[in-house]
Amino acid sequence: MATVSEFLIERLENAGIKHVFGVPGDYVLDFYTKLWNSLKIKVINTTDETHAGFAADAYARINGIGCCCTTYNVGTLKVANACACAYAERSPVVVISGSPGMKEREEGHLLHHMVRSFNCQHDIFKNLTCASVVLDNQTTAGYLIDKAFESLQHYKQPIYIELPRDIANKSIVYDVYDQGTPQKSKSDPENLEESLSEVSAWINTAKNPAILAGVELARYGLQDRMVKFAEKLNIPVATTLLSKSTINETHPLFAGVYSGSASHEYTRRIVDGSDCLLMFGVMLTDISLNFRPSKFNKRQVVNVSVSGLQVRTHTFANVGFSDFCTLLFKSELGIHENPDIPVRKNKLVFTPKKNQAITTRRLFEKVNSVLDKNMSIVADIGDSLFGAGDLIVQNTNHFLSPAFYTSMGFAIPGALGVQMARPSVRPIVLVGDGAFQMSMTELSTIIQHNLNPIVIIMNNDGYATERLLRDGEFNNIRRWKYYKVVDLLDGGFSAEIRTEEDLDKHMTKALESKSLYILDVVLDGKDISDGMRRMADALSKRI
Amino acid sequence: MATVSEFLIERLENAGIKHVFGVPGDYVLDFYTKLWNSLKIKVINTTDETHAGFAADAYARINGIGCCCTTYNVGTLKVANACACAYAERSPVVVISGSPGMKEREEGHLLHHMVRSFNCQHDIFKNLTCASVVLDNQTTAGYLIDKAFESLQHYKQPIYIELPRDIANKSIVYDVYDQGTPQKSKSDPENLEESLSEVSAWINTAKNPAILAGVELARYGLQDRMVKFAEKLNIPVATTLLSKSTINETHPLFAGVYSGSASHEYTRRIVDGSDCLLMFGVMLTDISLNFRPSKFNKRQVVNVSVSGLQVRTHTFANVGFSDFCTLLFKSELGIHENPDIPVRKNKLVFTPKKNQAITTRRLFEKVNSVLDKNMSIVADIGDSLFGAGDLIVQNTNHFLSPAFYTSMGFAIPGALGVQMARPSVRPIVLVGDGAFQMSMTELSTIIQHNLNPIVIIMNNDGYATERLLRDGEFNNIRRWKYYKVVDLLDGGFSAEIRTEEDLDKHMTKALESKSLYILDVVLDGKDISDGMRRMADALSKRI
Fold this sequence. Notes:
Two copies of one chain form a homodimer. Chain A has 20 helices and 19 strands. By secondary structure, chain A is α/β, with parallel strands linked by helices. In chain A, a hairpin with a 2-residue loop joins strand 11 and strand 12. The longest helix of chain A has 18 residues, at 138-155. The first copy, chain A, is globular and about 70 Å long. The N and C termini of chain A lie far apart (59 Å). The model of chain A is unreliable at 175-183 (pLDDT under 50). The interface between A and B is large, with 83 and 83 residues.
């Protein structure tokens, strides 16, 4: 007879979890021990719970599911922000928290880590998850765990599982509640057929159909089918910052990253100018529209996502995102003329100029020149993200950034998650000095597990995005000798980069190295990327 | 006519706020600018919002009120844990968060930093504050701010003020809602008189009355009156870990820190053996009872706190904590015989032994030998706290630690808050390697503002408390070259301490220095303090 802990661990294993990120604490210590000793799951201790959350999120984006495990309140409340990020951007993370035993809750004195009442933490996480359960007795625990996992799979959003420590070792009683898997919400067959036939006919008669590929395609494992569909019909595919790399960006049908008025001209022409824009799983965020009202004429749009299906001016109820996409992508439809996409050079050559101070533009040119299909980009917020929009990512799903929720401090713990999920891929981490100060301690965990991201610090002494919004002394960040972090952490390599030649030389070294390599790139405080420059005007009006 | 921002800033100033800790972000940028430019308030940017929360908490414990200011979700959710700590331990912190404008909320597209709905953050902070308000229009804003501040003053707990960015600059309209200050909840005069007369009579006839002084005395500014009362009656005063330093610990009436079975023998004798134990504002936490049921016989106890008044087996309703204490402390009562408190040496001499590896016990002996009334102790969690319980703190309210909520990572940002609130006092920070890794980035802010705490890292490669509970590899922490942190941060001094002579030499240097000084004290992984040893047995049974 399995205990509640064993049951939960088995469910994690079956769902595809091979790594759990966390920090041990007394209320979760018993479960943590069992997890640590499990054969199929490796537990990765992080330096802080905040980072365990982000690592689990990044891991989930690659692996299809992620998990973090922490103790009551003092640990789990630090996961709240990362959990919110995963919720907003549909990343399926299992948040497991230990908590006081049910018995000790009755004893009447104040237990450490308590806030107002024992259920505060649960009440908080209800706001940040698609399902949240407290395993408060052994009879319902199994049922609740399964219900929560089902919810995670359906919504691709985080779930919260609270395990009171005196329940962890109780034998699970499942039979009573084993009511079988609840009926999946199925699409209405008539609505599905009618909508497919309308959309198919429209695509066939459209002059210049185009796809705007959203992040939900990746979350529901539909991206490869979407690409084949685009190839079959010969229609262009644009993405958003949040869904960047849904299609390999060297693909001739890739039409660029759409960001409203901040897009490249050809991307805007293809997306805004399409007479039949197929939006698959797109989250229309302020950043994806460059902080302006949508330019889309709804008479030219099919918009299907987890939230519903809209075709021109009408909607179809009860049509599932996966059902619709799967069937549409199989349809036999006519071939379109070649779209008008400028030819891109895939491998740009970077020739360093002598004694030339490094600039943001040249930094991104250099990164573009070394990117290959075995490297991924993990971008933090600010110019790390806006600049990275123009990088040519050469493999599907090899770009990660919280481009909607935009929480600083994601990229370094994110790289930990990415490389745990995909050990053969080397992440290039783009991070500003502000976000580096928030999350640099996690480089320690990266060193401990012999991972080897190349971390590029865009060191411009401040919050560059905010300088555009409202300049002031408060946007300044005190400069550290960032390259000395390897001495403190006792691992990895680093270099201070001031010129193009420095960058060229040390990027070569970094690429040759099998260790963590940190490039402290000293930039002018006013220097910004081309991507941010295109956004600047709209940004500055948003205060 | 003041704007909502100006009104809020004026209320902060009037409440005694001189420093606000925060990180700017776009939704709060306009208010942040005004706060930055205010003449009476200095804004301290921290490296991370987590630390802004802890710094504000520590500041509030000294100053009577603290404040942090952050942006929507990505910033403020990181304050959740610190806010929970302040709630649990009654520290009055104003949590100010910017948020999307009321108008832009209606525009229909997804705004960055959003989670499920616009009110998620507010719903979360309802669990962590005694009052939470969203200033969603200029007509109610003033009233809501005043109500929230009133609540903070009454409960001495955090409040949450959310400021949508398009309301910040609107002129405040107050008149409509100016219903005058609501009636304060007053004590019932008959209950108050009756209870005072019963308690006074009892104290006069008791053989060995004793005071257990709780943290609420400090929060409500009653501690000095309590000490005078004890002196007048000649009765001993014990404290708890959470209220340690409510009385100057060199005071002859100080009877030690009470921690149930982990207390010193004489403290237990005085507290558990009293026939009239006066508990003033005590929070009876699991740690204060050493994780065991209370030994107090309620027939021997007067327990008055914010939660109510209990005398022996009966309770008095509607008797305010402040009202009762203020009147009792003024009463003319008889003098008692000298209590049986062992004579303590205040200034212990530390003579380093040659080539002797440093131990935890000797480390605390050294700290005790240098402590004076111009130094405070800021202790993180684990042996930093349990060991520090035995230090002799020579000034009122000069010991700080989240001894109930016990969140790691408090002490370094806490020292920032303490020294901002009390610049003439030098903090000695006790922090384990785990908590150091969580919060070391805030040393940068400490350097930036020329503060000079002495930071003692208890470097034992792991979570020492957890090793007692359940040992395993997961309790190990990867060792950094901690003393090199000053090179990375480019400020302060440091030394690696391996022997008693190292400690002696570098403590002298630290005391002479006017800068941040970090002592990386290398301890054996199994070595623990006397304080922790007294708790070990009870601790290990709590898993």
